[in-house]
Amino acid sequence: MSGKPRKKIALFSVITLITGFILAYSYQYTKQESEKHPSVKEWQQEDQLRNDLLHVQRINHSLTDRLQHVRVQAQAEENKLVHEKKQSHYVVEELNRLRKVVGGVKVKGEGLEVSLKDTTFIPQSSDPNQYIVHEQHIRAVIYELLVSGAEAVAVNGQRITSHSYVTCIGPVVSIDGHQFPAPFIVSAIGNKNTLEKALRLSLLPQLEEDGIKVQLFGRDDITMDAHLHNEG
Amino acid sequence: MWLAALSLIVGLVLGFLSEIRIPPEYSNYLSIAVLAALDTIVGGVKAHVKGDFDDKVFITGFFFNIVLAAGLAFLGVYLGIDLYLAAIFAFGVRLFNNIAVIRRLVISKWDNARKNS
């Protein structure tokens, strides 16, 4: 009786020790696991939220990329625009200059007016052709003026361009299809002194020899209308 | 008897203080171990109350039950069947049976003791 119960109790104690250990360990383990792994529902929710967040972040990322891309594009466009504007500015300037030269626009400036009149003295015996202003006289004046540096030339207000023609139609002169009788006033925009000196140098004596009354007027402000291509 | 209670408390404390970690996939084995331990204790108590306690049966029962249950669970994991449930079921049923037997024996003993006094 003395040996057996003691052994029994000792064995019992060993088993209870093990049981206690396992119980406590299991309890602790479960507690930690539940902390580590929250319930499935919670976990799913978390996963869902994480996925949503990821999705939004991905969208944000792609949008940021796009924004950057668009910004770069916009900058390129702006630069191009500035360049084009500069270019077009030069083009317009050039265009305006060329228009002035070809007579496409109204111009204004100091210049010289040359008045060509048929002579009033007509000897009875002579051919009247010798005493009236011919188209070659007008042409000569125009060429002389252009050569002397005139920037724009007009005859009786009709602008002369590189395409203009001056022809004789009986008693009148046709300039680009517009007919003008004498007297003719050839106006030129340019340095009036230079132009006048150039004319007096060679052309004036010749014209006077042909019996034409020539008068030169230096003007400070001559306005010329644009050349229009309506003939006749 | 006090020693048994004391060792239970010591075991609990040791379990709480232990820092050993097991992988999550072995939690099934842990549950079986818990049930096997409880079953053994209850079985031992029953035998003691009944008066046919045998230390060899007691000790071998504890370890053999645990090994058998663990083996079943191990097999179940590899077969894809939750065989450890069978062990849990068996242990649970036995636990209830043993406790019922203990209850009856204790009640009858108590009744006898009262009649005698």
UniProtKB/TrEMBL annotation, chain A:
This is DUF881 domain-containing protein. It holds the Pfam family DUF881. It comes from the Bacteria. Belongs to the UPF0749 family. It comes from Fictibacillus macauensis ZFHKF-1. Gene3D superfamilies: Protein of unknown function DUF881. InterPro entries: DUF881 (IPR010273).
From TrEMBL, chain B:
Keywords: Cell membrane, Membrane, Transmembrane, Transmembrane helix. The chain crosses the membrane at residues 28-45, 57-78, 84-106. It is found in: Cell membrane. InterPro entries: DUF1290. Pfam families: DUF1290. It is a multi-pass membrane protein. GO terms for cellular component: plasma membrane. The keyword Transmembrane applies. Belongs to the sbp family. This is Small basic protein. It comes from Fictibacillus macauensis ZFHKF-1.
